[in-house]
Amino acid sequence: MSWRRFIRRKYWDAERAREIQAYLEAETADNISRGMSAEDALSAARRTFGNPTLIREEIYRMNSVSWFESVLQDVRYGIRLLWTNPGFAAVAILSLALGIGANTAIFQLVDAVRLRSLPVKDPHELVEIKIIGGNRGMGLNGPHGELTLPIWQEIRRDHPPFSGVFAWGKDQSVIGEGAALEQVNTLLMSREGFRTLGIEPWRGRLLQDSDEHACPSSTVVVSHAYWQSRMGSRPIDGTTKLLVDGEMMQVVGVTPPSFFGLAVGENFDIVLPMCRPKQLARNIFMISVMGRLKPGWTISQASARFTGLSPGIMAATEIQGYDSRAVARYRQFRLGVYPASSGVSYLREAFDSSLRLLLAITGLVLLIACANIANLLLARATTREREVAVRLALGAGRLRLFRQMLVESSLLAAIGMGLGLALAQVLSRVLVHALSTQDDAVYLPTGTDFRVLFFASATALLTCLIFGIAPALRASGIDPMAAMKAGGRGATASRERFSLQRMMIVVQMSVSLLLLVIALLFVHSFYNLMTFNPGMREHGITVAFIGLNKSHLAKDRILEFQRQLVGEVQTIPGVISAATTTSVPLLGNSWTHGITAGRVENDSKFAWVSPGYFATMDIPILRGRGFTASDTGTSPRVAVVNQAFVRRFFDNADPIGQILRTHAEPDYPATIYQIVGIMPDTLYNDIRGDRPPMVLAPALQFPNPVPWTAMMIRSGLTTTAAGEAVKSRILSNHPEIIMECRSFETRIHDGLVREKMMAMLSGFFGAVAALLSMIGLYGVISYFVTRRRSEIGIRIAIGAHRGQVVAMIMREAGMLVAAGVLIGTVVAFAASRAAASLLFNLKPYDPSTFAAAAFLLAAIGALAGFIPARRASKLDPMASLRAE
Asked: Fewer Cβ atoms within 10 A, N terminus or C terminus of the chain?
């Protein structure tokens, strides 16, 4: 039988009906011609042909797929049941949609950050070459900077495992001039890049060999997003130009819309050729190198080959300007090859554990929702016992009934999955937005791919099995004779059968307590971070990032010009003080110097600041003095150290007047500083980190003036008003300066995105879990009251007080809550340790957190139990007995 006949069964049935009718009419006519009456002729024709209805039914069955037809009937019946029980259907479907949607949204982020391949040709062949274990803080590091340019040149010269190899890096450029000036993200790409990746241009062409050979290059490629939003999608021709970093460049092409770069979560606006400068910066780790494996080569073979080549590569690219120990450490570096099909990403390190924990949390929320629906289905199975008994008595098989119940559960799961997928798209976008800050937008492809669909489908199937099997087994396993008896309800609703629902409530309560503990831990941890004192002023500070590249200042004039800018800013009304610094604290960037002080050699954080820094940042000088205008480039070198420096280098002895010497590094010669002051320990690199040894030196004694600076501005204005006033004053006097102002406090809080996300989401899911548990407990206690309605009526009739009835019901609810809290506390104590690395100034077994979670859950349980208990106490005994 073909599926076409099955799909068109009504048509074929009508055709057979016409054929049968035509046969009967022809036979009847023949009989009449033989002398029969019309009535006898028709009867004789029917006797000859047989029963037309039975024949049509047989043909209909022949055109059917029996199992499919049966399932289709179950589906139609299930839809009718859901339609006639809209309240139950709405609660069940919305619970599932929330659970499946939340799980799928978190998985979409995991998929986008870790699993999804780059949108390039054969991404599984891509690998990355980098130093095994990293460069251990040596030199300067750019974003995604794994190797130096000299190392790249050596790899480019000899790369036998690869059919193609290329280098890339991240940078920022300035497009336009004057009021139209804007800062954009730049992707630096070697000439082999797009060819190796197999990327075709959307418009024009991409980079080629000639673009890199003509250095500095005069060509630029733009991203599809920039081409659309900033260039109005205009045609790419010889007249399409952009002013990039003060140089007019020819736009030669547009990258395809799907290509966001090689760093997941980031984006780029323009692509510039990676030109080889006249003097390679041998100590700046600013680029990444990727390649495409040749057929027959494995990652382990390629890695072994480059590890073997490493001694020669390191010797040929030896860093200069360091002491012999640093050079020896550099020579020990070894290169390895790593998979790169999914690109690189700082999000993996920063958010991987958080996303995994959130996926576990949402999974537990879904488990609670499943337990709720299972309880609802168990209650419905009890009310449908007579229906099931009648069907069994009429010959329905138990397997058939089991399948019917499971199909109803599958319908709920399928509808919940559909709504959950739609909800996941919204939630995933909200999550990506939550990960973004004003200065660091996150770009993630959150579309639904085969992995997301598979995950959602598997989740829906699992939920169906979790909440569907027990009710289906119970419904198909009843005794029809007992169910048909008048007292059958009491027999089938015995305490033993009710125990499964009790057990699921205990599980719900246990899981809810675990989720509440985790939620409160993350909320408490985030509060600790937000209120933590870093040892310096946060509020009322504006950070101005100032670029002097277009000022074309001589190197020996840069520091004096920066001092002049500070003076101009301090004349602005509302500004209290201002100071420059080579490193803004708490923003994750720092300079580490090798130091010799006393008899100790070790590392210390180092920065050069102008005299007003201590007053601006509200950092007191505990002993000695700070910096003054007399601390210049021609005066003796002086330094202020923190207490951690005193402990490490001087074992708490008085360091005032003592000498410290910095180790030589490129552009930073070994220098002797005299310690003139001690400041308190302050956080420097990261608010979550320790308070390391710290040295501050005068800005005018900075050994390597660069055409940029950061200025810390303390004012009585709002940070927005202060930023606008500073930009107006500086740019009116120096229009060639590139300037950006940000709130220091906001920049610090932007670094707490992970903690903020965990606090918000875990708190939300903890509240949802508690609400679902309350609904589940309320439903079970209400069902308990309904099944014992006659008993309660008798108790009241023979003199039981209403308070005794309330106490009886509350004891039932209290036992369930107490069991759940007890088990949940043990589970939470063991499981909360998984979150220890994500907490700040808080132990995972914090007693106050556990007590608060238990109190909240107990209060929720008491409320859920009291409502049906109070309703039970108001029963009319006569009415309940008559109903029985």
From this structure: N
